[in-house]
Every structure is written in C-alpha cells, then in structure tokens.
C-alpha cells in the first residue's frame, strides 16, 4: 500500500510534521468510534493531537453511535452544547432495553452508514483499522473478535462464513484501543461463544470476571492499548489488555492521565509512534511524523 510522501517542514526537534495536509482520498482508512455519552464531533475534538499526526498517513472516518442518551458527566462542562449525545451499548440500567439482535443490527447499520458516506465523499483507500475511545474501544475490540471468529470458523469448515447481523465484511488489520475496557460484546452469537463475552443487549458492567477468557475469544489481531494511569477504570482496561489480547500482538502505551485521550504532545506522540509500528507490521505504509 503506497502512500505519497508529502513535503515537510520540521516543526520541532521530535516531529517531522508536513507543512501541508495531503489529499486523504487515496489513503488507507481508519474507522473512529466515539465513547458513550458523547458523539463523533466530540471524539474528533478530543483526539486533535492524534489527528495532527495520523492524517498524514490515514483517512480518519468518524462514525455516530445509533442510540441517543444523556451526556457523559465528563464532557458536560466543555462539550455541553454538542448535543445530541450518543452511545453504542448500554452501560446504565436507565438506558432503554433492547434485544441483542436489534442492538447488533443497529450498530452495523450505523457503521455501514459512516463507511458508505465516506465512499460518497471520495474515500477510496482500504479500510485497515479501528480506533475507539472508552466504549468505542470496547466496540472496536469486539469487532476485531467478530471478524476473527468468522475467520476461525471458515478455516475449520473450509467454507465461507456469513457476517451475520453486524453485516460488516471488512478485514480489519489492527485496532487502536484508547481506554478500552473489558468485557467484550458478542457481535455474532452464531459464531462466537463463551463466558468471557456478554450479550450485546446487556449491561457490560454486570459481567462477572471470575471466569477466564476462552482461547477462541483472545484477539490475535495487532492492538495498541492506551492507558491513563489516573483513570478510575484502569483495572478494566488492564483486563482487556491482559486477558483478551494475545501477548505477542499487543502493544501498551501508558501515560499520566485520567479518563481522556492524551492531550500533551509528548504523550500523543508515543501513541502515534506505536500506531505507526503496528500499521507497518500489518503491511500498511505510513509517513512517520515522529
């Protein structure tokens, strides 16, 4: 996968940020999944330092969650005017109940909509990665596992396995999981089984962690994990990293922050460097800015 090398001007001692932003239409694409109680516009604003670098190698596409909800308490002060606020999955009892099949279909429809809209906007690069924050990271990891489940079953049976209700046949190469927490949602019950997964229509916080993670539910696709050391949910982020991801395909970036996306250049550049490494390992060429 070839990426044109843009002209650049050195803007600091540690970065090689180009002077111009390239035409993103031919670049490999990353689907970006916001957290719960926010929306795509807020995620884009929160991730501005990552975008500053990644936009020279990838076309970033921002999807909107299918379900409306109240704003997350952490964003009200700064982003209170950014309504409507959305979610992908339930995490509170007051969120409207829905059966798992309907939730999976709605998630699939929302993702398809974002991807098709980007096609119409001129995007033509391969879909290569998923980047999610918080609940979006949980969803990104669950999508990687759904794909892996179909690949495993196809290998075992020698037959093509349908995508199921999620309806997304993309061959994701890697995931960027920003403050992503365990457990993972089962997005294809016809293919995935085991006590380590919870029903997509349920509340993930009610999942009991006493059981181990079955081998078939361990993600083998490359993943970058970003953990804030002051995040109240850190123990759940570590469980996603430790229990659900294969040791030789996972990369961990830690920073001294709370439940948010790195907002200082030094921390953001560590994340970007890890993304470049993982992308190249999966055969995606990048223009390194750090």
TrEMBL record:
Pfam families: FSH1
GO MF assignments: hydrolase activity
Domain named Serine hydrolase: residues: 28-269
An individual GO BP term: secondary metabolite biosynthetic process
Region (Disordered), start-end ranges: 1-21
Domain of life: Eukaryota
Entries under SUPFAM superfamilies matching the protein: alpha/beta-Hydrolases (SSF53474)
GO CC field: cytoplasm; nucleus
Keywords: Hydrolase
Family affiliation: Belongs to the LovG family.
PANTHER family: ESTERASE DBAE-RELATED (PTHR48070:SF3), ESTERASE OVCA2 (PTHR48070)
Name of the molecule in the record: Serine hydrolase domain-containing protein
Lineage: Eukaryota, Fungi, Dikarya, Ascomycota, Pezizomycotina
């Amino acid at each position: 996968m070839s990426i044109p090398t843009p002209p650049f001007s050195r803007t600091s001692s540690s970065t090689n940020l180009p002077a111009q932003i390239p035409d993103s239409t031919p670049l490999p694409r990353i689907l970006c999944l916001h957290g719960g109680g926010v929306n795509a516009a807020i995620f884009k604003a929160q991730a501005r330092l990552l975008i500053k670098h990644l936009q020279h190698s990838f076309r970033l596409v921002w999807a909107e969650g299918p379900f409306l909800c109240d704003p997350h308490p952490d964003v009200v002060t700064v982003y209170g005017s950014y309504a409507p606020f959305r979610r992908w999955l339930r995490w509170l009892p007051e969120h409207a109940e829905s059966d798992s099949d309907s939730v999976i279909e709605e998630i699939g429809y929302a993702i398809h909509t974002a991807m098709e809209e980007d096609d119409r906007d001129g995007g033509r690069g391969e879909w290569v990665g998923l980047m999610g924050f918080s609940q979006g990271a949980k969803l990104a990891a669950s999508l990687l596992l759904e794909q892996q489940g179909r690949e495993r079953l196809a290998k075992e049976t020698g037959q093509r396995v349908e995508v199921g209700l999620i309806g997304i046949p993309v061959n994701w190469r890697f995931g960027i999981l920003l403050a992503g927490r365990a457990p993972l949602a089962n997005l294809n019950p016809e293919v995935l089984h085991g006590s380590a997964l919870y029903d997509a229509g349920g509340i993930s916080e009610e999942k009991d962690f006493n059981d181990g993670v079955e081998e078939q539910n361990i993600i083998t696709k490359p993943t970058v994990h970003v953990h804030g050391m002051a995040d109240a949910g850190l123990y759940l982020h570590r469980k996603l990293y430790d229990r659900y991801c294969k040791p030789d395909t996972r990369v961990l970036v830690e920073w001294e922050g709370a439940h948010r996306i790195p907002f200082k250049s030094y921390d953001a550049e560590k994340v970007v460097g890890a993304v470049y490494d993982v992308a190249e390992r999966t055969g995606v060429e990048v223009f390194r800015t750090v």
